[in-house]
Specification:
There is one protein chain. The chain is of the alpha+beta class. Helices cover about 35% and strands about 15% of the residues. Strand 6 and strand 7 (about 130-135) form a beta hairpin. Helix 7 (about 160-165) packs across helix 9 and helix 9 (about 205-215) runs antiparallel to helix 10.
Length: about 270
């Protein structure tokens, strides 16, 4: 392609025709050596205002497909894998967003939730809020692939999603909301299929809280039994633990999970 005679818009259109929806500032600069950075960024800003492209992070661009251009919103699953690859960060779609992808949509998430191993600021792009949660260890063995129009992306498995909902309950609106979402997620979870590595994902109190909620709040004894056996086989040692992280309650922990109810979970009818 002779870029001396081609506009940036035409260059993008030709890429889309070949199924290439993503490009970087470095690629543009290389393709248009005759244009200055100022001119290129002016062109990019104009195309962004027209809705032809969007930029979910600095120097990374998405050519907006026609069907999304009409709606005015590009779903993050369309670009999240390519964006995180461009940034060099491991990731997975997590928490409420993962639960929704697994069919648990008790309350539609207000943001698209992603877990990565580095601190990233939440941003609003193209009408959608992207919330990033930091986890030092990305448990890749418990990620699955789902497909979008542009390719595959990483999402937590139902079992990992359950752990994350308890561990990062503050990010989803509290332990009560996490419990409501967990209730809808349960039919997709199979704790029998996980191996010992599953019990290294989080600290022991997370498994205790999850097990207690399964057994005492959601009345899912079979699921709780399986989780309990897995914890014991993995060598986890239960100690007296508050249901919500924070100050211990006065009472004794009466169940096998050694959980003290320092809060009352308020959940909708399930």
């Amino acid at each position: 392609m002779n870029t001396n005679e081609t506009s940036l818009n035409d260059w993008i259109t030709q890429r889309v025709l070949r199924g290439k929806y993503f490009f970087t500032m470095a690629e543009i600069t290389e393709s248009f050596p005759q244009k200055t950075q100022f001119v290129l960024r002016t062109d990019l800003n104009r195309l962004t205002k027209r809705g032809v492209i969007m930029s979910p992070c600095r120097n990374f661009y998405v050519a907006v497909p026609e069907e999304y251009r009409l709606k005015g919103v590009v779903p993050p699953i369309f670009y999240i894998d390519n964006m995180m690859s461009f940034m060099g960060k491991p990731y997975y779609v997590a928490l409420l967003s993962a639960a929704a992808l697994h069919g648990a949509a008790h309350q539609a998430p207000q943001a698209f939730m992603v877990i990565t191993n580095d601190k990233m600021r939440s941003v609003v792009k193209n009408g959608t809020r992207l919330d990033f949660v930091t986890r030092k260890y990305i448990p890749t063995a418990f990620l699955i692939k789902k497909r979008s129009k542009s390719g595959d992306f990483n999402v937590s498995s139902p079992a990992l999603t359950a752990i994350d909902l308890i561990e990062y309950e503050a990010n989803v609106g509290g332990l009560s909301r996490a419990t409501e979402v967990l209730a809808e997620l349960l039919e997709t979870i199979d704790f029998k299929s996980v191996d010992a590595e599953f019990y290294k994902i989080a600290q022991t109190p997370i498994y205790q809280r999850l097990g207690y909620i399964l057994e005492e709040v959601l009345d899912e004894k079979a699921q709780a039994d399986t989780l309990y056996e897995g914890c014991k086989n993995a060598g986890l040692t239960f100690r007296k633990t508050p249901l919500k992280k924070g100050r211990m309650a006065e009472q004794e922990s009466a169940t096998r999970w050694k959980i003290q109810e320092n809060i009352t979970l308020e959940i909708d009818e399930l």
